[in-house]
Each structure stands twice: as structure tokens, then as C-alpha cells.
Amino acid sequence: IAAYPKGYSNYVGLGKTYLNENKTTDAQAQFDKAKSLCSTKNVVVLEMIADAMTNVDFPQLQNAINLMEQAQGIVDDNKDVLMREGDAYAKMNNGTGQAYNLYLRVLYIDSLDVIARTKIGTIWIEGKQYDLSKPHLEKALKIDSTFGPAWRELAELYYNQGEYDKAEKFYKKYLSLADNNDYTRYRYAQFLFLGKKYSDCLDILNDLMKRDNNPIMRRLAGYCNVELSDFTTAQNRGRIRG
Q1: pTM for the full model?
Q2: Integer Cα distance of 198 and 204 in angstroms
Q3: Which end of the chain, N or C, is more open, meaning fewer C-beta atoms within 10 Å of its C-beta?
Q4: What is the Cα 19 distance to its own chain's centre?
């Protein structure tokens, strides 16, 4: 903002940081400032604010939905607007039906939109309708085989079906394309454990525990040690460490 006071995206970003601290009044002041720098018909700033209101620790989902309804009064059948509104509904209790319909509308506009197709697949996974989810995820990957989230959701689908070898394979592919961080690597370690690849699981956990003295990780590492007949190390995993 100091470098470019008229850059509305910076005010949206600052507002988002306030929402993460649950400072709604301060956040709204920044969002209002962002809108004041734009034309009243600028839907991009409304999309950005709706996204900020949705993807924070203290979301304002109904406000995000209201903004996207306002945006739809400015532009018809804009897939980005529909997507943002769908995202807000997807996080709202009992909102998955509306989210599903909005994502479908995105596909009516652009049948090759892999994000909307993957999000529909995710909705069906959450509803335990795996046979309905799989075609959407496979179609997304047929359109774009490098789209990491579709690999991740397909891995979760097979995990929920107890097909752990496939889950591990697809999650490994996801890590090669997208978010290879400590959280996702721990999730991958869980898949490795269920696939009975205990040494590989332990290699990841030992690395993660260098940075995070996490009792849940220690417990899973202990299970790996038991499966590898290293009972002394397994026993030591259970001791609380400062």
C-alpha cells in the first residue's frame, strides 16, 4: 500500500489478515477502501473480497455469498463469480447442495474447467457417493493430468474405500505436482502405513519430527517400529519429550 496506494488488491489482502484475527470492523474498512478505488461495475474486486471472506480462520460466508449475488447482477454467467459463491456455500453447514448447483453452472459455461469438476468430485466424496465422484475426478485429470488437487481427491476417494495402495500411489503423484509441505507429507505417511510400507513411512516421520515434536506422529512412528519388530524404539516413542 505504501508503494502503490491505489492498488485495491492490497487493501483486500490487508482486510483478509484482519479477518484471520477476527477483527471484522477493521477488515470491512479495508474492503470498503478497496471498493472505493474501483468502478461500481468492477466484479473482480468483489470476487477478491468474497474469496478473502471465505478462506480465513473466521469466515463471513453469508457476506461472501451476498457479494457474489451482487456481482451476478452486474455480469451474467461469469464462472469466476459462480465459483466464489459455490466455495462459500461449500463451507457453510447444509450448503453443499447450493455449492454443487453453482459448480454445475460453471461446467455448463466451460465443460473443461478442472477446478469446478474436481470440487464436484469432492462434494460426492464427502457424501460417500464414490461412484459419482470418480468420473468427475478422472475427467478432470483427462483434461489436465498436471492438476494436483484432482490427484489428491482421487487418493482420498481410494483411502475411503480401503484401497490403500491406490491411495498412496495417487497421493504421491499429487505431492510431485503441488503442495509438498509437512502437512501433506504427514498425510502421505499415513497412506504409506496403511499400505504396509512401514520403512518408507518411518523415513518421512523421522524427518518431520525433527521440526515438530508431535505425539500423534510419534505414535504412528511407534506403530511402524512395532511392525518392523523394533520394539525398544517403539516403546521409547511413547515417552513424553520436552
Answers
A1: 0.88
A2: 10
A3: C
A4: 18
